[in-house]
Amino acid sequence: MVLNCRHVWDRISDYIEGTLDPEVRADVERHLAHCEICSAVLDSTRNVIILMADDRVFELPVDFSKQLHARLDLVLAEEAPEPA
Ligand SMILES: [Zn+2]
């Protein structure tokens, strides 16, 4: 399956947590290899999670995922109106 940016963003927290199916994970990695936007999104998502881990807060806020997706929508609107 060929993923577009939005597919990857929907899966990025599972990707970081390592809970994706191996097949899906491979698809995400294939996309990340050639997509700078998603690589940047992955980096900043990871940074947020690392920051939280440093503060010994391992549970994400209830609306974390909602906020993340709102942020991604913003990025999409600014940088990738037509994700390939
Ligand atoms: Zn992408």
* Chemical compounds bound to the protein: zinc ion
The helix tally amounts to: 4
Number of domains: 1
**Secondary-structure element series:** HHHH
Output mean pLDDT.
Answer: 81
Estimated share of beta-strand residues: under 5%
Walk me through this protein's architecture.
- It contains 4 helices and no strands.
- By secondary structure, it is mostly helical.
- The protein has one domain.
- Helix 2 (22-34) crosses helix 3 (36-54).
- The model has no long low-confidence stretch (mean pLDDT 81).
- Bound molecules: zinc ion.
- The site of zinc ion (ZN) has 6 residues, from helix 1 and helix 3.
In short:
This protein has 84 residues and is an all-alpha fold. The protein contains 4 helices and no strands. The model has no long low-confidence stretch (mean pLDDT 81).
Which key phrases capture this entry?
84 residues; 4 helices; mainly alpha; binds zinc ion; single chain
Secondary-structure map:
Layout: H1 5-17, H2 22-34, H3 36-54, H4 64-79
Helix pairs in contact: 1-2, 1-3, 2-3
The structure holds zinc ion (ZN).
